[in-house]
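Write out a record, fold above all:
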Amino acid sequence: MNLQKRGGSWVANVCVNTVRKSKSFKKKREAIAWGNLQEQDGILARHTLHETLAAYIPVAEKKRGYKAELSRLKSLHALPDLPLDLLNKKVLTEWRDHRLTQVAPVSVRRELILLSAVFKAAIEWGWIRENPAKLVKWPETSNPRRRGITSDEIAEIYKRLEPTRTGLQVRAMFDLSLETGMRLGELLSLTWGEVKDKSVSLPKTKNGDQREVPLSPRAREIIESRRNIDPETVFTLSAHVVSKAFSRASVNGVHFHDARGEAITRLSKKLDVLQLAKMIGHRDLKSLMHYYSESADSIADRL
């Protein structure tokens, strides 16, 4: 940067990436500040989006759901490999609209969440000043799935699971989820060392918190039925095998994860809201309400 005094003004001259710029200011400190900013922007511009995505990989690998995160990082390479400061609203909006023709809004929203996290990391690294993802309107997603499961549906699913090779174990997992509200991933990672007399300890859950899950008498029976099958884990199947087996046995579009919502609705009749939130692992009532599906008629019967 070069400063020159011309009459009553200060002129700052800079050369950024072979481009010369100059601007006049009344005060010297304003000229210096502008010149420093222009030079810093030149440094920032040398970091491209794809370079930033690659730098973010070690950050993503430390997360619990890192495999899905890495997959989304690959999808973000569809964005043009521009310097970070050139990723403006127009560029990101065009990418968002194109992605909406390829995948569901919820997928685009997840990619934007990840892209925003990448930009936040870049800000910490000093590669960019502001988060461009905030310039774009994120797609609206559908309302949360609130679906109870009837006893007839459960009976039919169990009937279909019974003759299959993995049926008994998948049934035990679904039963335990109905009793505790535990997620499929939490069930699959459950070890015998985490099982106590009246509860199980989950050292790291989806939101990163540790959680103690109390066990009903029925839940304890289900876990004990798995004793001495494997020395380390309570359940021995992979998420892919469980999901595939349950999908084949499902009726009326019931998902395995619907057991969590059904459990929350059932447990709400036994526990107060704070106890329920602690057991399920939700930090706020809004998250809990996403799963609660008791009908108005059922609530009326309790009045």
